[in-house]
Amino acid sequence: MTALTFETLLDRHQREIMAYIVRSLGEHDMAQDVFQETFLRAFRAYKRLPAEANHRAWLYKIASNACHDARRQRARSPLPLDESVAAPERSDGTARVLAGAVAAFVRSLPARQRQTLVLRKFQGMDYDEIAAVLGCSAEAARANVYQGLRKVRAHFAEVDHD
Amino acid sequence: MTSDRCFEEEDLLALLAGDESPEAWREHMRGCDECRELFSAQEPLRRALDEPARQPIDTLVKTARAHLEEALPLSPKPTAYYDAWPDTPVGPLLLAASDRGLCAISFGSSVDDFLRRVERRGFRPAPSPKRVRQAVKQLREYFAGRRRRFDVTVDLTGQTPFQRQVLEAAARVPAGAVASYADIARAIGRPRATRAVGAALGQNPVPIVVPCHRIIGSDGGLHGYGGGLDVKEKLLRLEGAPIR
C-alpha cells in the first residue's frame, strides 16, 4: 500500500521539481506545461508505486523525461525559443550575467551531461541520488558531470580570452 | 587536508563539481603562482555554477498547482483557520484549527514559515480568529494558572502512527508532573526508541496543549524544546513541576 497521499507528495516536492524543470528548460511558460505533464504522469502511475520506493527520485525521473520530451518538441518548433548560450561580453560580465550564461550553456549540453549537471550543481544532489534519478551508476553520473564541466570550462575560457 | 602537488585538469573539474573544496589547495597555492592563477581564472565560473537560482519559483508553482488541481481529481484540502496571538507570556504564538480540531501551535511570529508548515501537512490555511478562539481562551486560563488540562480536540493530520503514539503518551502526563523520554518509550512498548521519541516530540504540531514540555531527560535535564529551553522551564514552573 502506498503510504503517502498524492497530495502530500505534491505538497512536499512541487517546489524543487518546478525549480528543476525551470533550470532544465530555462523558460517559465514551458516549465508550467512540463510541470503539469510531470504530475499528470506521476498521478497515473502513483498507485502502482511501491510504498518503499524513493518517491523523490521517482518524481525527478518523471520530470527529467518530461523535460526531455519537451525539448525534443521544441527542437521541431520553427520558433527560436531558447535564449542565447553565448558567454557575456567582458564589459557586462557581472557575476549575475555570467551565472545566467553558464546556466544557458548547461541547458545546451547533450542530455546526460545536462541532466547530471543540473542535478549536481543546481539541485545539490550527490552522485548516488543522481544515479537513482537517472537509472545509472554513481560513477557514470560523475563521469557525465565532469564531461559537461569540461565543455563549460572550454567554452567560457575561449570567450574570456578572445 | 592540503595538497602538495600542482593542479591537474581533474582537480579543477572537481572544484567546479563541488567534489573538492578550495581549502584543500590553499596551502599549496600560497607558494605556487601558476596554480594560483589557474584557480583565480576559474573562480568566476565556479561561483557562477554555485549561484543559486533567483527565479520567482513560488508564483510559478502556485499557478501551475492551480492548473493541476483543475486537471486532477484531487480531494479538496481541509482548511486550517489560523490567527496570531502576539503577546503571550511565552512570546508570540500562531494557532490553527481545522474542522476536526486544533491542528497547529507555533512559537514565534513568522506567519510565512507557519503557513508553509501548515501547508506541508496538507491543509489550506485561511485567516479566522473565530475558529481558534476556544483554544486561545483555554490557553489564557492556563497561563493565568487557572487551568490544569485542556479540553480541546486536536487534529494530528500529517503525523505518522509512531508520532501519534508518542504524542498520546505525552498527553497522559498530568500538569505538575514530568516523565522522561525513556518513560515514554517504555509506555508505547518501544523501550529502546528513546531517541526516536525525542524526535517525535520535536515534531509535535500542538505544543503546550499536547504537553511535550513535560518530557525531560532521565538525568533531570530539560534537553530540547521547539520554543526554547527558557519557555520549557517557564511552562514547567507555571505547572509546579519538580524541576531543578
Name the features.
heterodimer; A: 162 residues; Rna Polymerase Sigma Factor, Chain: A; Arc Repressor Mutant, subunit A; 72% helix; globular; B: 244 residues; alpha/beta; four-stranded mixed beta sheet; two-stranded parallel ribbon; 10 helices; 6 strands; extended
What proportion of the residues of chain A form beta strands (DSSP E)? under 5%
Q: What low-confidence regions of chain B span 5 or more consecutive residues with pLDDT below 50?
A: none
Overall residue-averaged pLDDT value of chain A:
82
Tally of separate helices of chain B: 10
Class from secondary-structure proportions of chain B: alpha/beta
Oligomeric status: heterodimer
**Biggest sheet descriptor of chain B:** 4 strands, mixed
Shape of chain B: extended
| CATH class type of the largest domain in chain B | Alpha Beta
Characterize the main sheet of chain A: none
SSE topology string of chain A: HHHHHHH
**Rg over C-alpha atoms of chain A, rounded to the nearest angstrom:** 17 Å
Report helical residue fraction of chain A.
Answer: over 70%
- The CA-CA distance between the termini of chain B, in Å, is 45 Å
What coarse outline of chain A follows from CA principal-axis ratios? globular
Overview of this structure, please?
The complex is a heterodimer of chains A (162) and B (244). In chain A, helix 1 packs across helix 3 (55-76), helix 2 (28-46) crosses helix 3 and helix 6 crosses helix 7. Chain A has helices at residues 6-25, 28-46, 55-76, 95-107, 111-122, 127-134, 138-160. Mean pLDDT of chain A is 82; it is low at 78-92. Chain A is globular, with a radius of gyration of 17 Å. Chain A contains 7 helices and no strands. Chain A has 162 residues and is mainly alpha-helical. Helix content of chain A is 72%, strand content 0%. Chain A has 2 domains: 1-82, RNA polymerase sigma factor, region 2, helix turn helix motif (Rna Polymerase Sigma Factor, Chain: A), CATH 1.10.1740.10; 84-162, Arc Repressor Mutant, subunit A. Chain B has 244 residues and is of the alpha/beta class. Chain B folds into 3 domains: 9-50, no CATH class; 73-158, Double Stranded RNA Binding Domain, CATH 3.30.160.70; 159-244, Winged helix-like DNA-binding domain superfamily/Winged helix DNA-binding domain (Arc Repressor Mutant, subunit A). Chain B has 10 helices and 6 strands, in the order H-H-H-H-E-E-E-H-E-H-H-E-H-H-E-H. Chain B has helices at 9-17, 23-30, 33-50, 57-71, 111-120, 133-143, 161-171, 181-187, 194-202, 229-239; strands at residues 79-88, 91-97, 102-107, 124-127, 179-180, 215-216. In chain B, the strands form 2 sheets. In chain B, strands 3-2-1-4 form a 4-stranded mixed sheet. Chain B has a two-stranded parallel ribbon with strand order 5-6. Chain B is extended. The model of chain B has no long low-confidence stretch (mean pLDDT 89). Chain A binds chain B through residues 5-8, 10-12, 14-15, 18-19, 22-23, 28, 31-32, 35-36, 39-40, 43, 93, 95-96, 98-99, 101-103, 120-122, 142, 145-146, 149-150, 152-153, 156-157, 160, and chain B through 9-10, 12-13, 16-19, 41-42, 44-45, 47-51, 53-55, 57-58, 60-61, 63-65, 67-68, 71-72, 74-75, 77, 119-120, 122, 158.
